[in-house]
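Milestone 3.1: sequence recovery, worked example.
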């Protein structure tokens, strides 16, 4: 009888594994389909109307989603997607085939961006630049009588705000505006192509930086519905900056000597000139190169400074005005919001929060350093691990943060090994997935306009009351896990916790 049971075990395990694989594929497929339905539908509470399509793709699905329907659809997609990512990490998954990846890219190119109206802001600032004015100095509502067909489409609360985006990203927006002209949909679609190309470029670089781990790359990046939704379908500039970050790391590993340092410095300069916080890649690479590579590091920093310096000189003296003004902002979903409200919300308490957030970022970086090692001993894996440590510390602690700010961390996450937690999935992956899921829920539909009072009440409750508590729990989990972690050799995960 025992022999029969023993003989049956492999078959039962195989059946269980196949069922789990089917479940994971089903969860991810449904999540992607729901996201694409939102992107292919008529304008709604999550996606602003971009006007006449011109030669850009128009609406594929002639269906109208109510504010409640679009919110429920996105929340369902995020929940199913998060569960699918957990299963993918637990089971391991094969790399996606080229036709599947190409199909996702094509489908994304047919959608209208959703989750915010940031893409309209990009088009507006690019239009202002293309027509000879300074997008870092003038606000959309004050530009040319608020009568331009592209710039006047900017939505609250950004109509009164000059650009906060870096000079290189804005240069691309300006070039897109030269082609799209006064057609908003055409201008936005050209930017979508840049974002999709950036998403594919990150995958291409990661597969070469992490040979043998192509399935993990797709589990965390390509086939991750939350990254796809917030980064690609949201058409955010963070995707472009992340591509330069991973490209810089790839250049360091691919080309030894001065050539690799020059290319890495160029990509690093373009990354920080797209979004300033992405300058973290330069520090990450320096830490990965270690002291015996001082000359390469110096060349990289020098080239990055040259590239960024030229771009910022071209942009003019006002390029950092908005960054300075927004430095003390506190997001509604942030745990720091509790302290802001208790303290009365004045400038003094905001200054205190800024200091505490900076200290917390250092603390979380220390925690992530204790919980992770690089997946291999190459310079690329080491650099990406430092991107996770430094970028993840900042993302967790920042007083003002939005879901797409996490794109940087997820672009590097495949390169780390972390202690094993619930469901045999890495603690760091679980913590960051929990954060991204909570943030994605909190910023649905994502626009200020277009919601009914009932939907607004529900979504704002999630954003202002539920999300801060859940994010505080993520903080606690990371700290406790780090305190319990034991030192280990590179590449060896911690023993299971809990």
């Amino acid at each position: 009888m025992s022999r029969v049971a023993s003989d049956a075990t492999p078959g039962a395990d195989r059946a269980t594994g196949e069922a789990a694989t089917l479940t994971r594929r089903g969860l991810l497929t449904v999540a992607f389909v729901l996201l694409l339905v939102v992107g292919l539908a008529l304008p709604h509470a999550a996606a602003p109307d971009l006007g006449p399509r011109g030669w850009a793709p128009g609406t594929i699905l002639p269906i109208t989603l109510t504010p409640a329907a679009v919110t429920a659809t996105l929340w369902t997609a995020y929940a199913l997607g998060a569960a699918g990512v957990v299963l993918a990490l637990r089971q391991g998954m094969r790399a996606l085939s080229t036709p599947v990846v190409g199909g996702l890219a094509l489908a994304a190119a047919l959608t209208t961006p959703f989750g915010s109206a940031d893409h309209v802001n990009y088009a507006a600032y690019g239009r202002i630049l293309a027509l000879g004015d300074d997008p870092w100095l003038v606000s959309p509502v004050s530009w040319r009588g608020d009568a331009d067909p592209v710039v006047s489409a900017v939505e609250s609360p950004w109509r009164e705000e000059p650009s906060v985006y870096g000079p290189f990203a804005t240069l691309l927006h300006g070039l897109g505006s030269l082609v799209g002209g006064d057609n908003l949909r055409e201008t936005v679609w050209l930017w979508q192509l840049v974002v999709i190309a950036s998403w594919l470029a990150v995958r291409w670089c990661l597969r070469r930086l992490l040979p043998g781990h192509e399935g993990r790359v797709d589990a965390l990046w390509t086939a991750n519905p939350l990254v796809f939704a917030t980064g690609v379908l949201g058409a955010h500039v963070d995707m472009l900056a992340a591509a330069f970050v991973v490209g810089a790391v790839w250049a360091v590993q691919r080309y030894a000597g001065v050539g690799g340092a020059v290319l890495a410095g160029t990509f690093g300069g373009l990354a920080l000139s797209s979004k300033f916080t992405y300058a973290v890649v330069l520090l990450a690479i320096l830490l990965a190169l270690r002291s015996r590579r001082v000359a390469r590091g110096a060349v990289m920093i020098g080239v990055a400074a040259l590239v960024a310096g030229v771009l910022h000189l071209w942009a003019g003296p006002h390029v950092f005005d908005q960054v300075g003004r927004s430095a003390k902002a506190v997001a509604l979903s942030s745990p720091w919001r509790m302290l802001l409200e208790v303290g009365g919300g004045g400038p003094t308490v905001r200054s205190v929060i800024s200091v505490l957030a900076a200290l917390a970022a250092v603390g979380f970086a220390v925690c992530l350093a204790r919980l992770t090692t690089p997946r291999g001993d190459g310079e690329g894996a080491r650099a990406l691990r430092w991107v996770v440590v430094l970028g993840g510390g900042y993302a967790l602690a920042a007083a003002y943060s939005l879901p797409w700010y996490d794109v940087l961390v997820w672009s590097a996450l495949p390169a780390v090994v972390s202690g094993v937690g619930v469901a045999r999935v890495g603690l760091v992956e679980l913590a960051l997935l929990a954060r991204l899921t909570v943030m994605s829920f909190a910023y649905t539909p994502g626009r200020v306009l277009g919601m009914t009072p009932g939907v607004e009440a529900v979504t704002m409750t999630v954003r202002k009351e539920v999300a801060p508590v859940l994010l505080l729990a993520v903080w606690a989990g990371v700290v406790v896990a780090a305190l319990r972690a034991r030192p280990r050799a590179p590449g060896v995960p911690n023993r299971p916790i809990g």
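The radius of gyration is 23 Å. The longest strand covers residues 372-374.
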